[in-house]
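Quick one, T. Sequence first:
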Amino acid sequence: MKVLYLANQQFLSQYFYRGWKNAFEALACQIDCLDYSRQSVSSYLSNQPASTRYDIIMSASNEGILSIPAEWANEMRTALVINGLPYNSLRLSPDTQAPNAKEEEVKHIAKFQRKLIWSQWMPEYVDYFYEGYRRLGIPVISMPYAADITPWGLNPEAIESPDLDILFIGNLKHRAKQNLPIFKRLFDLSSP
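Structure tokens:
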């Protein structure tokens, strides 16, 4: 499989790209990264040899998607896979840090024959906050974030009955003031 990932030079874009890069390379797939802020996707794709065909073009938070030529992707049978921003009739987001998708972005996504929006939110949130995509025939799935362990060469083993009361995978630091008191209350309810 061959993947083109769109990312700019910002830390968050590169962080997401590295996680996907490690995952695809672990599966023996090829993944290329294009800084869409320095070169348009259309010009990049038009300068590729005719034999070049990407199976998937990916992006996070709708980055660079307006410059992806839908006609080219449809002709090449390339799938568009986006970690999409919320899009619903009330223009609401489950997180103040996650803006809503722009109307023009969503209309552009709808032009692709093979497309998928995925969200890190649980299915109930996806049903509500991403309903606008589904209204336009764009499939949406819930796929929560997971830790990228490949840089450390770890090979996780399944534990049949873990000795845990609470397991948390995520990031508390960016919301420490709001999140830590909640976790402290949870810890008070569990055994040491």
